[in-house]
Amino acid sequence: MAARMTRFAQTDSIETAQEPTPSEAPLKGLRVALFSGNYNYVRDGANQALNRLVGYLQRQGAQVHVYAPKVKKPAFPSKGKLVGLPSLPLPGRAEYRIPLTLGGKTRADLKAFKPNVVHVSSPDPAAHRAVSWARARGLPVLASVHTRFDTYPRYYNMAWLEPILTALLRRFYRRCDALVAPSESMAQVLREERMSYDISLWSRGVDRTIFNPGRRDLEWRRSLGIADDEVVIGFLGRLVMEKGLDVFSDTIDELVRRGTREGTRHRVMVVGEGPARAWFEARLPGAVFTGFQGGKDLGRAVAAMDVLFNPSVTETFGNVTLEAMACAVPVVAAAATGSQSLVSDGVSGRLIAPGALHQFAEALRNYVEDADLRARHGAAGERRSLDFSWDAINQAVADTYLRLIRQKDALKRR
């Protein structure tokens, strides 16, 4: 890091940095303007990752201003200086907001802040304008990809929109200098769709103090009416249709029709909250709905599962998959971006073709009937989860910022 900063500090775009001592901040002089469509007003995996990144950058001495919609009652406290963006509720999903433009307050803050790199995390109208603002000033732009936006229309009977969205995303991302994706499988999709020629990894970490097998609490399970001999098939995530709620419930129906070996029983437990909860509850009579769980309570809920079923194809990484693995819970997941980079099929879980109800049901039945299989695959998943350290992962983003700044400075000197 010392050598990187010494070379980098030879231009006016960052404060001069001498060879740092252990007591100095290694990212001093780095000023990041981060644009987000949802930074803290609805809790999800993407904004949790962004807040962790900002917290890490600040601990290393960087300054970060975050430009995102503000609400009166945010879901959680945010990291960095938060500057509000003009926004409107998303039609049909009013809990989310669309940032519309930069606005005078934002432009004044940007002028005073003088960022040396711009980071956009969602392809909304304000992010488009932020990219134009940065390009006009010769500043590097990094885009992070957090979800498969182009797949969302299929869950709302508008699949015809997907190629149009893909084309719009390509235009947006190719105006950026580089992309970071949370998994190699997602990076490969982006390469195949020609979104960028500079794509690196910004993976995700897991907090082992929260997610570990020791969080399993049989008394808590019993308080929910779950018997000790019932195998819990868990769902974890926001209750919205794009998380594959229809595939989940149809698969459970198929599992019930097939039945399991005599002496084995299963129960569905749903952890999370969202606008589709009433629909999901109607489709899963007898399931336990815990509502939102956070912090240590979330770790307890995940560890209470015996197998996680994640049929979603919209994730670019799959935070819930990694959290279950850290709790030694085997995972049955769609063979899609995100989970493919985490789950080893037949070793730590099962990867099934998206939407393949019969195969999903068969994989779940095997886990319900075989405790040894659950224990073996759960242990393998926990070992794999140890590879994901938040600090090392977030340093990879900082390294990408520094590389892009050096590249821009080199072009200016030509």
Walkthrough of the structure:
The chain has 414 residues and is an alpha/beta fold. It folds into 2 domains: 2-205 and 389-413, Rossmann fold, CATH 3.40.50; 213-385, Rossmann fold, CATH 3.40.50. Helix content is 39%, strand content 17%. The chain is built from 14 helices and 15 strands. It has helices at residues 2-8, 45-59, 103-113, 125-136, 162-173, 184-192, 218-223, 245-258, 277-283, 295-303, 319-326, 357-369, 371-385, 390-413; strands spanning 31-35, 63-68, 81-84, 87-90, 93-99, 117-120, 141-144, 178-181, 199-201, 230-236, 265-271, 288-291, 307-310, 331-334, 349-352. The strands form 3 sheets. It has a 7-stranded parallel beta sheet, sandwiched between helices. Strands 12-11-10-13-14-15 form a 6-stranded parallel beta sheet, sandwiched between helices. Strands 4-5 form a two-stranded antiparallel ribbon. Helix 1 runs parallel beside helix 14, helix 2 (45-59) crosses helix 14 (390-413) and helix 11 (319-326) packs across helix 13. The longest helix is centred in the C-terminal third of the chain and has 24 residues, at 390-413. Residues 1-23 have low confidence and may be disordered.
Question: What topology does this entry show?
Answer:
Blueprint (H helix, E strand, L loop, with lengths): L1 H7 L22 E5 L9 H15 L3 E6 L12 E4 L2 E4 L2 E7 L3 H11 L3 E4 L4 H12 L4 E4 L17 H12 L4 E4 L2 H9 L6 E3 L16 H6 L6 E7 L8 H14 L6 E7 L5 H7 L4 E4 L3 H9 L3 E4 L8 H8 L4 E4 L14 E4 L4 H13 L1 H15 L4 H24 L1
Parallel strand pairs: 1-2, 1-6, 2-3, 6-7, 7-8, 8-9, 10-11, 10-13, 11-12, 13-14, 14-15
Antiparallel strand pairs: 4-5
Helix pairs in contact: 1-14, 2-14, 8-12, 11-13
